Amino acid sequence: MKNTVLAVLIFISSIVMQGCQTNEQRTREIVKEELSNVFKRTAILDAHVVGPYSPAQQLGNFLFTSGQIAINQETGKLENADFETETRQVLENLMSVLRKAGFDSSDVIATTVYLTDMKDYGKMNAIYGGYFTEGNYPARTTIQVSALPRGARIEISAIAYKM
Predict the structure, then answer these.
(1) What are the backbone dihedrals phi and psi of residue 51, each rounded to the nearest 5 degrees, phi first?
(2) Which among 3, 62, 73, 94 is most buried, taking Cβ atoms within 10 Å?
(3) Which CATH number goes with the domain that contains 83?
């Protein structure tokens, strides 16, 4: 964003320095166009979902993912033979959404983990840690909930930022 704003300011300065006469309205239009490009909202739609929502929304350099459950993207079925399998599928789904938007796990700055049983926290934690770089783990909130879609035991959403 800083680069785009800087580019707009340099463009405006160059017009003024060259002696070109530009009206104030056109300058405002140019600034508005450039800033709207920075904050352009894009839906990432290429993933299996269970309702009327986008798997992710990109706004500028930020990516906001919807909560991912353990739906196998090829079969549409919940992969929940055991909690560990379910957790891995959730994280694979999350990584897939990130990749489709041009991000990866190193770009994730925060996650929210929803568990139906806090007793599964240790198992989740052991698997979760393998998907992120040690020393650069995202901020995380873990919440116990009474139920999740399709009887899932875990759901994870993320916010990512890419320079």
Answers:
(1) -170, -175
(2) 94
(3) 3.30.1330.40
Q: What is the pLDDT of residues 89-112, one digit of tens each?
A: 999 999 999 999 999 999 999 999
Same domain? For 72 and 58 the reply is yes
In angstroms, rounded to a whole number, what is the distance separating the alpha carbons of residues 34 and 27? 11
Residue 61: CA atoms inside 13 Å, Cβ hemisphere, count?
A: 10
The answer, yes or no, to whether residue 3 has pLDDT greater than 70, is: no
Q: Per the structure block, which two tokens stand in for 77?
A: 């079925």
Question: CA 137 to CA 128: how far, in whole Å?
Answer: 10
For 74, list phi and psi in degrees, rounded to 5.
-90, -40
Shared domain for 81 and 139, answered yes or no, is: yes
Model-level pTM?
0.76
**Helix, strand or coil for residue 139?**
strand
Evaluate whether 43 touches 54 at the Cβ level (below 8 Å): yes
| DSSP conformation class of 68 | B
Query: pLDDT, tens digit, for every residue of 13-53?
Result: 555 555 555 577 777 776 666 666 666 777 766 656 666 77
| Pairing relationship of beta strands 62-65 and 56-59 according to DSSP bridges | antiparallel
- Which residue range is the domain that position 57 belongs to? 41-161
What per-residue confidence (pLDDT) applies to 37?
62
